[in-house]
Amino acid sequence: MRPFLFLGTRAEDDVAQQEYDAVLAGTGLQPDELARVRVESGPLGEIDLDDWSGIILGGGPFNASDPDHLKSPTQHRVEAELRDLARRVVAADMPFLGACYGVGVLGVLDGGVVDRTYGEAIGALPIRLTAEGTADPLFGELPEVFLAYLGHKEAVSRLPGGAVLLASSDTCPVHAFRLGRNVYATQFHPELDPVALCDRIDAYADHGYYEPHERESLKAAAREALVVEPVRLLARFVELYARS
Description:
By secondary structure, this protein is of the alpha/beta class. It has helices at residues 13-27, 73-92, 101-106, 131-135, 194-203, 215-224, 232-241, and strands at 4-8, 34-38, 55-57, 96-99, 113-115, 120-129, 145-152, 155-158, 164-168, 176-179, 183-186. It holds the Pfam family GATase.
């Protein structure tokens, strides 16, 4: 089997490792079957799409809608590299699954708009599949309504041209979409479990996702939520796209 490629953007070593380990567990892949590049730590370099079965992009604190003058040089570089890669992926219809930050990368292509209109607080919320989502080869593995962990400042307010809406919540119209047949983005986090979400709540305490007095209540709510379905997307992605 050709390996899959995981792209991470988290600067915090422990959280970055936890995310990668969660994707390994969810996909059922071994480390030699899921290569990792931490894009925030250095240039992405040349990616030959033919080398890979598919690409998975993790989340992170970068926001496409941040004002340009507030973006660090690292964020500017990462955005440029991932935008170029995304254009190649879409043109080739390469299997791609971008979680959370995938919306910021894919959502701005071809007339799409990502802004602060539909941000959602950290927690677990019901996600509902559209008719297209129910019929989709990847998302059709999920129930029509399921709980998912999320927490984001930005979201898609206008889909890119040709995008197919797959899932929504009551407070965010675009929680997942597809470009072509094989390129996917989710706003929610398919890899998260309660422990990982609590660790991220601690790790990003100073990033403006919540007020300081909310930390413990958010963690308590995360522990109480029964989120079991979204991780199935990871194994299904491998099942659909692993190739020799």
